[in-house]
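User: My collaborator sent over this chain with a note saying "see what the structure looks like." That's all I know about it. Can you take a look?
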Amino acid sequence: MIEYLKYRLDVFLKKQFDNTSRETIQKWIKGGLVKLNGQVQTSTKILVSSDDDIVVDKIPEQKITISPIKNNLKVYFQDEHIIVIEKTADLISHPAPSIPKDKHTLVNYVLFHSKKLADTAGNNRPGVVHRLDKDTSGVMVFAKSNEAYYSLIKMFEKHKMRREYKAVVWNWITEDQIYKDPLGPDPNDFRKRTVRIDGVKAETIVQPVKVFGKERISLVNCTLHTGRTHQIRVHLAYHGFPVVGDPVYGSDQRYLKNVNDNDLLKIAVKDNSRQLLHAHTLGFKHPITKEEMLFHSDIPQEFYDILDKCEDV
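Assistant: Without extra context I'll predict from the sequence alone. Here is the result:
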């Protein structure tokens, strides 16, 4: 019999409503908008598990005005149905009530180039069919028409998108790896994911590209067969290969604690401001024309700022 991990109701819901503040979620619960196993539940602290039936009544979406902002975003492809762009690091994918109004998001930038985006995803997420973490860069597709939106969403749900990432990780990966550890919310930190026996299916294929000598660093290619939150970062860290620069699952200081402060790699890692994870390949059938489409993005300079300080094996 599986013993399900327990965590607070507000923490559980925070994971389901990723872009909603915990304070807002607590108001939903106290306001009687949440049912637990068929009964209205107003306690935010009651412990629940993924085996419980939790329903949130329809919540009025807080309307956010999204204005196009002029930018130099790289556009790979655009027609009347989709736009394919390159996201830079340190950029949130879309607006949310918890994000300051003066904070620019990727949607603001995309809208400048596309002029319109599909509105079926909600007022705060126009055109959004997938996301990259704030400090992950790389290729993304947005839907401009509602028809394209529904088709792309179905492709993601059925894992028919080709998604490959490059990552710089600590330790040597010298052979291909297949990670199938199920993932779920971390009961100790609502912002994180962790490997759990009662988690959802997740599969990542990791292939070494190059390994580096005394620094014990690897450049790897990661292919997603599912698309869970933080999937690559959690799988790599769980198996002992945390992404360099990852502020949540990484451990840069652990690997550098015995390194001289004047070491060029140590200086470069300290100066690095992002996790070294980049979505370099995105492939799919055009949602309307069914044409095969494949986009590649170059590895960012920040990767070379680290790798150039390493010695080849």
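A starting point for your reply to your collaborator: The helical segments are 9-16, 22-30, 106-114, 146-157, 231-238, 252-256, 264-271, 301-307.
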